[in-house]
Amino acid sequence: MATTFTPPQPDSGANKPRNIRGVLTGSDRVYLNILLAGGLAVLVLTLLIATFLSTRGLQALSVAGFRFLTTEQWQPDAHNFGIAAVLTGTVFIAVTALVMSFPLAIGTALFISELAPAVVKRFMIFVVDLLAAVPSVVYGIWGLKYLEGHVVGVSHWIARWFGWIPIFNVPGAHPDSPVYGNASYGASTFITAIVVAIMMLPIQCSIMREAFSQAPQGEREGAYALGATRWGMIRSVVLPFGQGGVIGGTILGLGRALGETIAVLLIISPVFRINPHILGTGGNSVAALIASHFGEASRFALSALMAAGLALFVLTMIVNFAASAIIARSRSGAMSEV
Amino acid sequence: MPATAAQSQAPGEVTIRPSVSDGPPPLPRRVGGINRSGVLNVVGALVFAITVTSLLFGRLGPFSGPIGFVFVMFALFIASYAALVSVSEDGPAVLNAVMTVLISSTAVIAVLALFSVVFFTFVKGVPAWFHTNFFTQDLSSAGPEAPLDVGGLQHAMVGTLWMVSIALAITIPSGITCALYLNEARGRVPRIVRTVVEAMTALPSVLAGLFIFSTWILTFHFEKSGLAAAFALSVEMLPIIIRASDVVLRLVPGNLKEASAALGAPMWRTALTVTLPTARSGLITGIILATARGIGETAPVLLTAGYTTYLNTDPIHGPMVSLPLAAFELVSSGIDNYVTRGFGAAAFLLVLVLVLFILARLIGGRGPGNVSARQLRRAMRMSHRDLERFLAAESRAQVPLLDLTEGNAPA
Question: Among residues A143, A196, B262, B402, which is most buried (max CB within 10 A)?
Answer without folding.
Answer: A196
